[in-house]
């Protein structure tokens, strides 16, 4: 009988009926287990899955696979680089919003406070037309998540 | 002599002069190695560090420690949840920007195309004053990084 899951095939072991891996690592996708195994190791994957309620395990495997792919592609920063870049983007868009809101306040004052104005001289707003794509890709430090702050200065 | 690094102490082994762990896991911070070891395992940490240039290894350990802390705090989603939430925030702020830019275009038309207007009736813009904090915390799927797209539908 050759019904071992991809994990048990990779680990060259018998696939027991209650195998913790088999629901998430079908035999027709060996690369999926191999990727995740190279980063976390089979033992740690099993331990993490054991502590998770069964209906959440598929999501856990997806997120671990995602992180593993990122780490394989970028061994230095993994998906933490993405967190940093997204935070940079948010910071940039917030600056854009603040500038535009100031511009709207100016227009409001012109339209409702001074109805005689014909050719208003607009104030200069910095960064209004900057594209998000202009953000640099340097990675000094990852950005803080809601609860866990890294120990280095932000 | 008791100069073993935190990793070698944890693994109950001699700490060789060229220990791959010792520069990043000082003996006075055993929790740091323990966290990262619980997620990646000592063998995988060593393998990842070996393939990275020495001057980038400290950053790699920081990012792995960060991911490990996230995974210990949230075994199901780890730091992928943060990526999803940041993408949600960016999507929301982009919508805000689009609405505000439409509002500015309206003001521009009023001020420069119709100078006689006194009490302009403004169009309705949705979400202008919504706070970023209003974003939900549901986690259907993590968002796509620049290069690695997860296999599920976005």
TrEMBL record, chains A, B:
Pfam families with a match to the protein in the record: LOB (PF03195)
Tree of life domain: Eukaryota
Domain LOB intervals: 3-104
Signal peptide bounds: none
Listed InterPro entries: LOB
Family from the record: Belongs to the LOB domain-containing protein family.
Protein name: LOB domain-containing protein
UniProt lineage: Eukaryota, Viridiplantae, Streptophyta, Embryophyta, Tracheophyta
